[in-house]
Amino acid sequence: MAAVASCSGADLSAAYLQANKTRLATPVAAGEQPPVQFVVAAGTTARGIADNLAARGLITDARLFEAFVRVNGLAGSLEAGTFQLSPSMTIPQIAYALTDARAAEIAVRVREGWRFEQTADYLSQNTPLDGGEYRERAAQGVLTGLDTTSYAEFLDRRPAGATLEGYLAPDTYRLPAEGATTLDLMKRQLDTFRDQVMPLWRDAQANGKTKLTLHEALTVASIVEREAVIDDERPTIAGVYLNRIARGMRLEADPTVQYAMGYQADSGLWWKAPVYLEEYGKVESPYNTYKVKGLPPGPIAAPGLASIEAVLNPEMHEYLFFMAKGDGSGRHSFARTFEEHLKNVEAYQKGQ
To answer: Domain end: 73, 103, 133, which one?
Structure first.
């Protein structure tokens, strides 16, 4: 009987790798592709990772991936964590990316209460992303190159000509350090809006909690976001504005005037502060709620979830006025009548 040579697992991996080495440089998809969030749970084996990569469409051959990492001594270096991978990456690129959960990522922090121009400036100054492109896309509502099918439920509710202000959800987003685009960030923001805001909106609609349209609710929420400092006051402030709307009063919201005034070259800021009462009458804009009744045309900033929830579940009260206490607490004094409001103003002035 002829002798049969024994063959170790390492030998088999090396043989398979050698036979398919030309495929290592061939990614699943050609050209630039959007990143895919890929999670490696603690304790996952190299083969388990390979199978998960194949299931997500990031590689086509789980065995080839496993062979590559084993032959190159990477199997024990694959880390648990969240990674941003792309089907345009080759197996070696993916394998090495998975050896450092912190590598090849940038954190983009879009803050609650920012107007999209602020986000654009932040991107230009602090990230490799194109802030100018972000500004243009947000202003024109242009998402060319992105499949917007799953966003139709809310993007199609916008009035004709509306920007994306208020729909680009604030949060901290992690993107690949290389190859990430502004469209990648906007997709993440729209995904977050779809997954977090829309369930709240559907619940409010189903249970008759609001008579506002989605666009109107976001508009009020953006004002609340700019006004509120303390979270537990958000429902109260939302209630004030909703009471004013119900009575046909002007909102007289300072942030809307600041939004209309735009960028302040002398301070380098997008929000003028302080804004004086005598300035309000000089600002000709549909966003000047001291001169125009009802809501402004749209959101003035990116509202956080707390402000959106406050508008959909406002505090029920009879307050029509509020003003900052001015004591450093961030809290406000609320009033049911203008006379009560004047007393709060007097108390504020005495305390200064």
So the answer is: 103
